[in-house]
Amino acid sequence: MGTVVIALILTGIVAWIVRGMIRDKKNGKSIRCGCNCKDCGGHCGMH
Fold first, then answer.
1. What average pLDDT score do residues 18-33 get?
2. pTM of the model
């Protein structure tokens, strides 16, 4: 029973993280972008 509870908790945490990543992507943020635009090379689309 404990294994099922832990698996559900971990699944919820992963889903929450993925949802946040999708929301950030829709808002124009990128995981790869460190806001260092002078060294970006155009990868993040923020010039």
1. 76
2. 0.57
